[in-house]
Design goal:
- This protein is α/β, with parallel strands linked by helices and 121 residues long.
- Helix content is 21%, strand content 39%.
- It folds into 2 domains: 1-51, Signal recognition particle alu RNA binding heterodimer, srp9/1, CATH 3.30.720.120; 63-120, 2,3-Dihydroxybiphenyl 1,2-Dioxygenase, domain 1.
- It has 2 helices and 8 strands.
- The strands form 2 sheets. The chain has a 4-stranded mixed β-sheet. Strands 5-8-7-6 form a 4-stranded mixed β-sheet, covered by helices on one side.
- β3 and β4 form a beta hairpin.
- The protein starts with a strand and ends with a strand.
- This is Glyoxalase.
Length: 121
């Protein structure tokens, strides 16, 4: 049996969210409808943006789940990613800090969904 994990992020505007995530990830969607767009992150992993489940999401509503982007390259790569995102105007919730598992930072997408960048295990 083939297993795939699809992480779904609920957004108000799937095309706008896809442009945001596509820019951050440096990739184009692998599947698109008007309200559901996915990115193929590699074997068995997809990121889906869905605007059909929850309408009128507000960034003012606290989000407690996170999408974590695990990156190679150590602290230098993480700091470079932070600087790049910061220069693009991405909302930064917490600057790079040591969280016990390594250097990490926390950002938010257009709907307030949390995005953690952390070292790959």
């Amino acid at each position: 049996m083939t297993t795939s994990v699809v992480s779904i992020v609920y957004v108000n505007d799937a095309p706008a969210a896809a442009r945001f995530y596509g820019d951050l990830l440096g990739m184009s969607p692998s599947f698109e409808t008007s309200g559901y767009i996915t990115f193929d992150l590699g074997p068995g992993a997809d990121l889906a943006l869905w605007s059909g489940q929850f309408e009128d999401l507000s960034p003012d509503v606290p989000r407690t789940s996170e999408v974590c982007l695990a990156i190679d390259g150590g602290p230098d790569e993480l700091n470079a990613t932070f600087e790049q995102w910061n220069s693009k105007g991405v909302t930064i919730l917490r600057e790079p800090h040591d969280a016990g598992f390594g250097l990490t930072f926390l950002a938010a997408d257009l709907d307030g969904n949390r995005i953690r960048v952390a070292p790959q295990d």
